[in-house]
Amino acid sequence: MARGRITDAVKNGRVLVADGAWGTFLHEKGLASGECPELWCVEHSETVLEVAQAYVDAGSDMIETNSFGGTSLKLAHYGLAARAAELNEAAARISRKAAGDERWVIASVGPTGKLLLMGDVTEQSLYDSFREQMVALAAGGADAICIETMSAVDEAAVAVKAAKENANCEVICTFTFEKTSRGDYRTMMGVGPVDAAKAATDAGADIIGANCGNGIERMIDIVAEMRSALPDAVIMVQANAGLPQNINGRDIFPETPDQMAAQVPALIRAGANIIGGCCGTTPAHIRAIRGCLRRY
Ligand SMILES: [Zn+2]
Questions:
Q1: Radius of gyration over alpha carbons of the chain, in Å?
Q2: Residues 199, 203, 208, 211: what is their CA dihedral angle, to the nearest 10 degrees?
Q3: What one-character DSSP code corresponds to residue 76?
Q4: What is the whole-number distance in angstroms between the Cα of residue 135 and the centre of ligand 1?
């Protein structure tokens, strides 16, 4: 395989560029709110391919998949639980087509929305739902499974195990943090960056980090905490384009591509190895980050 392993590329000293937001991009291309995004992998596969291709063209080293809500537990909201394997395999095939042999496909796996703590779901059915999704993503050609936007460490650990035990892929696990009134960072379930990163690592994750929730400025603090506790970890960040400003009831992410790229050197100094975008980021943001790394 020309591209090798992501972790080996990082250990050889490369800083890698991931991709940017998918959801908003698909909405721009006509996905209606209330529609199942993953269904577009079969019903509008050319449009999904355009999103992946736009990030390839912008200079991403790795491309996600349109499968964030692709567990059967999530797809059940649309009456599509029985099509989980089909939709995830299609999602991976689309991104594989765009990524070619040179770039990695990192297959997106989001939270199920079910909390083990609340007894919403048993650990076994949570595991089974993740396993089904991950086997299908691997079958479609994913190089890595990217478990993201996690807030509960128990769910994240089940997801990491399901990936390690059933898909022959590297496993990424990123959490979403908010800044508290005390000035530290916690997930919605109250977990700090170091505990989250350690839990994911203990479960077997190859790459850990943070996505969504913050712009690069706050991600610098989060990465520095993770880096000091886990000096050898491979750390990935997918930051929003700044903190949202609510304008006429809509969240607007204010940072321009250049504003975001200007903070990238500090994020690397804090310890980030893989940098991409989340809410509010576009191919233009990724192109600016790529340009910054070329000069860095
Ligand atoms: Zn986001």
A1: 17
A2: -70
A3: G
A4: 25
Residue in this structure with the two tokens 């639980």, named with its chain if needed: 81
The residue ranking higher by pLDDT, 2 or 4, is 4
Measured in Å, residue 176 CA sits from the centre of ligand 1 at 9
Q: Where are the beta strands (DSSP E) in 12-118?
A: 16-17, 62-63, 104-109
Tell me: the pLDDT tens digits for 238-262? 999 999 999 998 889 999 999 999 9
- Extended strands (E) in the chain: 16-17, 62-63, 104-109, 144-150, 170-175, 178-179, 185-186, 207-211, 234-239, 245-247, 250-252, 274-277
Could you tell me the end-to-end alpha-carbon distance of the chain, in angstroms, rounded to an integer? 28
Q: Over the chain, what is the mean pLDDT?
A: 97
Contacting residues for 8 by C-beta, under 8 A, at least 6 apart: none
Question: Cα of 2 to ligand 1 centre, how many Å?
Answer: 30
233's tokens: 């970890």
Tokens standing for 199? 């839990």
- Cα 279 to ligand 1 centre (Å): 4
Distance 227 CA to ligand 1 centre (A): 22
User: Which residues are placed with Cβ below 5 angstroms of ligand 1, an ion?
Assistant: 212, 278-279
pLDDT of 286 > 60? The answer is yes
* Cα–Cα dist 246/135, whole Å: 39
Instruction: Please tell me the chain's helix, strand, coil percentages from 3-state DSSP, rounded to the nearest 5.
Output: 50, 15, 35
Q: Cβ(279)–Cβ(21) under 8 Å? A: yes
Which residues partner with 170 through β-bridges? 144
